[in-house]
Amino acid sequence: MPSRNLLFINGPNLNLLGTREPHIYGSTTLPDVEAAAKQQAASLSISLATFQSNHEGAIVDRIQAARDEGVDAIVINPGAFTHTSVAIRDALLGVGIPYVELHVSNVHAREEWRRHSYFTDKAVAMVCGMGGSRVHGGY
């Protein structure tokens, strides 16, 4: 049975989409991405909640709250926390909610240090390099 209650989390600096290094991240803003994702989810009768924070602890708190809310799956772009956050990884594993790791840019074609992720090995899937507007649904 497909998930019906999804949580879409965006980490640090993703609030700057549309203005931050548009040659890498594109010109689509986070509100545009979230609106398109919500529209796509609604067309599939899926509830989609969104959350963005530049603070690691706030993301951990949001992930932990997701279990009590009955979230079926999480889509997360951990941003720079991809390469540093054992705390967010542990929160995802601790709640037992399946998750998809998402990145706007192709992290594998960038700096060597961006190629390491604390999330990929436990993710249901990992999507990267599709930009902010090239994938149907906005992300």
TrEMBL record:
User: From which residue to which does any coiled coil extend?
Assistant: none
- State the EC number(s): 4.2.1.10
State the superkingdom.
Eukaryota
Pathway info:
Aromatic compound metabolism; 3,4-dihydroxybenzoate biosynthesis; 3,4-dihydroxybenzoate from 3-dehydroquinate: step 1/2
Transmembrane region positions? none
State whether keyword Acetylation applies.
Answer: no
Keywords per UniProt? Lyase, Quinate metabolism
Alphabetical list of Pfam families matching this protein:
DHquinase_II (PF01220)
- Reaction equations catalysed: 3-dehydroquinate = 3-dehydroshikimate + H2O
Where in the sequence is the active site? Y25 (proton acceptor), H103 (proton donor)
Q: Where is this site: Transition state stabilizer?
A: R20
Q: Is Lyase among the key words of this record?
A: yes
Primary role: Is involved in the catabolism of quinate. Allows the utilization of quinate as carbon source via the beta-ketoadipate pathway.
According to the record's subunit comment, the protein's assembly and interactions are:
Homododecamer. Adopts a ring-like structure, composed of an arrangement of two hexameric rings stacked on top of one another.
Q: Which family does it belong to?
A: Belongs to the type-II 3-dehydroquinase family.
Q: Indicate what this protein is called per its UniProt record.
A: Catabolic 3-dehydroquinase
Q: Which organism is it from?
A: Apiospora aurea
